[in-house]
Amino acid sequence: YVRPGQIFIDHSASVPENVSKIATRLHSQSASYLDVPYNGNAAQAKQGTLTLMAGGSLDVFNKVLPLLRLYAESITHMGGTGTGILTKMIMQQLVALHSVAAAEALSVAHYAGLHESKLLSVLDSSWASSVMLRRDAPLMQSLLRNPETPPPQGQFNIKHVFDDLKLLMTDADIQERLFQQNKDAIHLPFTSTAYQLFQRIVNSGMGNCETAALVRLKDDIGTSKKEEPHHDAGAESVRSAVWQKYSPEKKTSEKRLARRSSPRRKTFIEKSAYKKNVLSQPQGQSLHEGPVESY
């Protein structure tokens, strides 16, 4: 039962399309809705240090702000309904990229024989530092030193990041919004690579492991002959459908094809071939050829 004037605060990680539907339904019953995903864990909630990103009415947000401050330290109103969820996806996108980069960099350092603590000291004081590097580096180095030790499981695990990353890469509503805003900004090669790596390691059975387990990527799936890479046909079909709807490439291809078959281009090709034949003749020898049409 929904009472008029009620305010619903949603801390779950949902699909933006579902968030909009929930908000619309509650608004029709004179209630309010905020999507407020969080970054942190239970310990941080008890300490009051969570990070919150809220989407919805600013007036409603200001009403519940004193409540949110009881368990969160960084609280930001991002905009209308759904912007909180989108912000969380962008955050997880960077978490995934930083984690993969840290895993690869520390693997290189390990096999190159660099001193572990000295390396971390240098990285932490440089532009190469990141929260994920500081968080996972000690465990990553331990897993590299002890290849037989199974990676520990954790609350903030690989599948947790992958689920949000998958929404960003495969949700049709998000893909369509990206195309509508800027058709040239849809290509995400680095994120796509991270998504595929996370997907494969989840499929290998390590989804519940800490993100530091990414250093095992090479050993478990990177060079394994037992497991074929998983092809996500669903993600590809979503991007393909949106691309067909908005892409200017189809018209561009048709124009290119028309230019290739135009008389102007044929004349240019004929003249180029003629010049090539003339230049290939021995000096002093003439080439009998009719006049070439100008272009």
Automatic annotation (TrEMBL):
GO molecular function, one term: NAD binding
Compositional bias annotation for Basic residues: 257-266
Listed SUPFAM superfamilies: 6-phosphogluconate dehydrogenase C-terminal domain-like (SSF48179), NAD(P)-binding Rossmann-fold domains (SSF51735)
Domain 3-hydroxyisobutyrate dehydrogenase-like NAD-binding: 82-217
Domain 6-phosphogluconate dehydrogenase NADP-binding: 2-79
Composition skew (Basic and acidic residues), residue ranges: 223-234, 247-256
UniProt-annotated stretches for the region Disordered: 223-295
Pfam families from the UniProt entry: NAD_binding_11, NAD_binding_2
Classification via InterPro entries: 6-PGluconate_DH-like_C_sf, 6PGD_dom2, 6PGDH_NADP-bd, HIBADH-like_NADP-bd, NAD(P)-bd_dom_sf
Protein name from the UniProt record: 3-hydroxyisobutyrate dehydrogenase-like NAD-binding domain-containing protein
Source species taxonomy: Eukaryota, Amoebozoa, Discosea, Flabellinia, Dactylopodida
